[in-house]
Design a protein that fits this description.
The protein has 268 residues and is α+β, with helices and mostly antiparallel strands. Helices cover 20% and strands 26% of the residues. It is built from seven helices and 17 strands. Bound molecules: uracil.
Length: 268
């Protein structure tokens, strides 16, 4: 994850210009994890690889963490071939950052951006799925039977979803709103679960990831996480310890039960 060109990483550490760093590499004075790297291209993970120039070890770049209230129409990959706006462009940061997990383009709300691949692995690994809470506005009335079905789990193509926590915030005939907490990251999971019980989503917003809350962060705005917030995300326990049965019957740990085509646009 997060591999970058070696000359760029050395240049970012202030050693010399990128061009000069390329020459340094070719002269054989650069080592990565103890081994001389003297040809290009070469790629490294600046957080985890030990890089030295002339025997001097470079410090790994500072780890940064932001909470963003993602607007509608913005996507969570770092680049979009279709030219849509990407979430990383909304956060001013000199480090190379990326989103942890995804929200689909139509969904707004809380997303964490960081350069910490270790935290990203921790939070996105099926074993460590932290509960995520969403508020959905849906078409029609969400009745008691639908609520019970959502709570017990819904059969989707991948299998039965885990138990969900459900709080109906408003139950109108034309429109209802509901707070839903799930621990998996299936593609467009909340939209599919609600459509399955007959109430298609009109709008969807994520309000928390584990203990991290969106609070009053305006749409399109971001803020750095506090040390306590980062520590709470790092300490997130395995999903099985949080909710009984809070896991889709996964076909494999890597796919989390999703078909290859469905994993492509993953929104967790
Ligand atoms: N569920 C969805 O339907 N969309 C998201 O972005 C996240 C969860």
């Amino acid at each position: 994850m997060a591999r970058e060109r070696l000359q760029k990483v050395i240049a970012s550490a202030g050693v010399a210009s990128r061009r000069e760093c390329e020459e340094l590499i070719l002269t054989g004075v650069v080592r990565v994890n103890g081994r001389v790297v003297d040809s290009l291209p070469a790629f490294v993970d600046p957080q985890t690889d030990a890089i030295s120039v002339d025997g001097k070890r470079l410090k790994p770049p500072l780890r940064v963490y932001f909470a963003l209230n993602k607007p509608k129409g913005v996507i969570c990959t770092n680049r979009d071939p279709q030219g849509r706006k990407v979430a990383v462009d909304l956060v001013q940061c000199s480090q190379r950052i990326f989103c942890i997990g995804r929200l689909d383009a139509d969904t707004t709300g809380l997303i964490v951006l960081t350069n910490d691949a270790e935290l990203a692995n921790h939070l996105t690994h099926p074993r460590y799925k932290v509960p995520k809470t969403y508020i959905a506005t849906v078409k029609g009335r969400l009745d008691a039977e639908a609520v019970q079905r959502l709570k017990r789990g819904i059969w989707l193509a991948e299998g039965k979803t885990g138990k969900a926590a459900i709080k109906v915030l408003k139950a109108g005939h034309q429109e209802s709103s509901v707070e839903i907490t799930i621990s998996q990251g299936l593609n467009r999971q909340v939209r599919r679960m609600l459509a399955n019980v007959g109430v298609p989503v009109k709008s969807l917003k994520r309000t928390s990831i584990g203990k991290l809350k969106l609070r009053d962060l305006a749409v399109g705005r971001y803020r750095p996480l506090t040390k306590a917030e980062v520590a709470a995300l790092q300490a997130a326990p395995p999903a099985a310890a949080q909710t009984k049965g809070g896991r889709v019957r996964a076909k494999s740990p890597r796919s989390n039960g999703r078909r290859r085509d469905e994993r492509k646009g993953d929104a967790s």
